[in-house]
Write a sequence for this structure.
């Protein structure tokens, strides 16, 4: 916004300078002073951080697979501070989307981890699972980003950042690294725990579109309505 206001001011003053030039000594002085002010303002334009620039559209390729992907038969959650179990019969196939809902503290993140561990869930052993956790526990913080990824293509992490240990990256950069890994992993199933946490708000529409266009099944937790509404045909499993 600051840059937009500055650009408009510069443009208006340029037009004024063009009208002033050459008419008198006083006007020439005023014209020169305005040009000097314009050059100073150009130097004062706000420089956007790389992570503040919107990433380009990207695609998460899916693992081509014939057969079942995942079957959920039991979910565990906290009720009145005690672990409760509920029998379910949910099978997810290509393009199925399932949102796990419920109040904070009911155990949604724990449920996703139990699904990953095969507790109450049957994930086809041939399926590659892409997992996004709130705390990035799927990343090895002692690795460099380059070792974790090798090549990130469309995601904006520059060469200098790739040489850094993952533990030194910002939370937003770690988030982008997770999505870049999905692009190379070609998962057959995405399990996403608050996939917009730590992500710059400018990137969220791009990430939402990539997930919506992803052809494999998705299980997600999200408390961000403007993100959830962009994921079509989203079914719900309410633990409350």
């Amino acid at each position: 916004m600051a840059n937009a206001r500055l650009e408009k001011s510069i443009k208006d003053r340029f037009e004024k300078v063009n009208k002033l030039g050459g008419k008198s000594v006083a006007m020439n002085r005023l014209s020169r002073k305005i040009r000097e002010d314009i050059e100073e303002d150009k130097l004062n334009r706000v420089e956007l951080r790389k992570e503040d620039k919107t990433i380009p559209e990207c695609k998460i390729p899916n693992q081509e697979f014939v057969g079942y992907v995942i079957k959920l038969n039991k979910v565990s959650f906290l009720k009145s501070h005690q672990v409760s179990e509920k029998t379910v019969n949910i099978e997810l196939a290509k393009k199925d989307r399932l949102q796990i809902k419920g109040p904070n503290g009911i155990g949604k993140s724990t449920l996703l981890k139990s699904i990953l561990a095969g507790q109450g869930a049957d994930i086809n052993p041939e399926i590659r699972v892409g997992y996004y956790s709130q705390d990035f526990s799927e990343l090895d913080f002692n690795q460099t980003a380059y070792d974790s990824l090798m090549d990130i293509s469309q995601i904006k992490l520059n060469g200098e950042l790739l040489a850094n240990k993952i533990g030194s990256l910002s939370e937003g950069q770690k988030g982008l690294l997770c999505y870049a890994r999905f692009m190379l992993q070609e998962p057959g199933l995405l399990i996403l725990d608050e996939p917009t946490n730590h992500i710059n708000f400018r990137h969220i529409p791009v990430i939402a579109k990539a997930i919506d266009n992803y052809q494999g099944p998705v299980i997600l937790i999200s408390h961000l309505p403007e993100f959830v509404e962009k994921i079509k045909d989203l079914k719900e499993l309410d633990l409350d």
Remarks:
- The chain has a mean pLDDT of 83.
- The CA atoms of residues 18 and 232 lie 53 Å apart.
- Residues 2-20 form the longest helix (19 residues).
